[in-house]
Amino acid sequence: MHRHLGRKRERIDTSRLLWLQGAAALMVVAVGALLAGIDGALSALMGGLVSLIPSLYFAWRIGSVRGGRRAGRFVSNLYRAEAGKFGLTVALLAMVFVAAPPSNPIFFFVAYVAVVLAHWLLPWTMRRRPAP
Predict the structure, then answer these.
(1) pLDDT, mean of residues 107-122
(2) Averaged over 80-86, what is the pLDDT?
(3) SS (H, E, C) the chain
């Protein structure tokens, strides 16, 4: 029997989302620095990293999996990656609030939410513009 050599399976590309999330975190860090100084910037940086690090983990876990005929395996790995992301988020939140509580919780949570919700902007970054 011969193998089907048609279309090559592609890896899932999460780089655009991760760049968008990183940009959202940096924007809140900049606003925190302008409005509240170094304390606001550090709080926003911690909030952004608490959200961005689990997203990087999820992208790493999913990026190593390819779709195709083994859909059940892909879904299983997807659930594992999401569970790991959730556990990592909880652990990072606990670690931040126990070890180094943010001096400005408003900027911490604004940065956290901005990074989490950045995926809503992703469709606008992927739209193709009509040729002139």
Answers:
(1) 91
(2) 94
(3) CCCCCCCCCCECCCHHHHHHHHHHHHHHHHHHHHHHHHHHHHHHHHHHHHHHHHHHHHHHHHHCCECCCCHHHHHHHHHHHHHHHHHHHHHHHHHHHHHCCCCCHHHHHHHHHHHHHHHHHHHHHHCCCCCC
Asked if 115 and 18 touch (Cβ cutoff 8 Å), the reply is: no
The structure's pTM equals: 0.79
Tell me which residue has tokens 């190593």: 64
Q: List beta partners, residue 66.
A: 11
Contact between 56 and 89 (Cβ < 8 Å): no
pLDDT in tens, 11-41: 567 888 889 999 999 999 999 999 999 999 9
The Cα 47–Cα 91 span in angstroms is 13
Q: Which residues contact 119 (CB under 8 A, 6 or more apart)?
A: 17, 20, 21
The share of the chain scoring above pLDDT 90, in percent, equals 56
What would the mean pLDDT of 68-72 be, rounded to a whole number? 72
CA 59 to chain centre: 8
